[in-house]
Amino acid sequence: MTPRTPVTTPAGATGTADTDDADSTNGTDGTSRETGTVAGATTFAGLTLDRHVHASDRAVNLARDVLSGLTANPRELPPKWFYDATGGMLFDEITRLPEYYPTRCERAVLDGHASDIAAACPADTLVELGSGTSEKTRLLLDALRAAGGLRRFVAFDVDESTLTQAGRSLIAAYPDLAVHAVVGDFERHLSHLPSGGRRLIAFLGGTIGNMRPAKRGAFLRALREQCGSTDALLLGTDLVKDPDRLVAAYDDGAGVTAAFNRNVLTVINRELGADFNIRGFAHVVRWNAADSWIEMRLRAVRDQQVTIDSLALAVDFQRGDDLLTEISAKFTRDMITAELADTGWAVAQQWTDPEGDFAVTLATPSTAPEAAPV
Ligand code: AVJ
């Protein structure tokens, strides 16, 4: 790696984005009122939006992650940068691939057990960590409505446009439901989750698997600290299985996941003025049995130098050099129970699809969360 000029981080690259400043339309607390409702008030009609991450933070956060990721050894990028508009569409396509079983397995569990979940936790508020666009969300909303108590839906995601779109379509589908969208990063803004009522907090899709164990622990503990005794967590986790099936799920025959993986290079080229040659990197997938996770990598197929204008950075890749772009952890039931117990949660119920490929766990707050391991 040869910095073209002394590597200086763009101004504010390390600045935190969470400003909560009053730039939102007409709210003073970062909450913009779209339909004359008051966030957190007793009346539940319409859509409320809280903004803790601003569109302007994206470039700063991307620059920070790319600079630290490409100058690290081994090189690594967080998977969140896959998800621009193209990445979102490619992921949607992945969920329909024959090899990628997690989405349909989780849907099968919710199809079969949404009413059991609603009976076990008759919440008045469904919180989804994620944008709430999925069909799975509606299965839960319908079951909680049928159980009689549902009054509010909170969607928490980093992408405001997806959130507001999803919010509006949910309001159209559920006119009497209060929809509260929170634009935030679940590694930093969980404390901004709207409080009150009895909340079922859904974290689906196996997305928790993209975090390493320490981050997962911190996340589950932070969530536990936001929860009262009547709240519950609904967690989707992919289960350990035949490594060939695991690898195939991330390396499909049609090459959609390969395109999804390479998309992060397109994002960096477009948003940071880099000159990655997309075809200069191969899509590589490996089952790491020791750490119980799938690794997705981009491997340089030849010696090449990549320059990133906005970082004044030049990065040399030797043929065979890897860039880790995602881990996706796979769990056993014991791992799930242990990680939840370590972070102040107790497994109340657990369901899997008929093949036992994917688990959905309902966890309730156990006694006070144990202190974080030092
Ligand atoms: C959406 C994060 C759960 O890790 O399985 C799919 C993303 N990456 N194919 C996963 C993904 C490659 C997916 N999650």
Describe this structure in words.
The structure is a single chain. Helix 2 (85-94) packs antiparallel against helix 8 (256-272) and helix 3 (102-120) packs parallel to helix 4 (135-146). The chain is of the alpha/beta class. The chain has helices at residues 57-70, 85-94, 102-120, 135-146, 160-173, 213-225, 243-250, 256-272, 333-341, and strands at residues 31-33, 47-51, 75-76, 125-129, 152-157, 178-183, 199-203, 232-238, 281-288, 293-300, 304-308, 313-317, 322-329, 345-352, 358-365. It has a nine-stranded mixed β-sheet with strand order 1-2-6-5-4-7-8-15-14, with helices on both faces. Strands 3-13-10-9 form a four-stranded mixed β-sheet. Strands 11-12 form a two-stranded antiparallel ribbon. A hairpin with a 5-residue loop joins strand 14 and strand 15. It is built from nine helices and 15 strands. It is globular, with a radius of gyration of 21 Å. It binds N,N,N-trimethyl-histidine (AVJ).
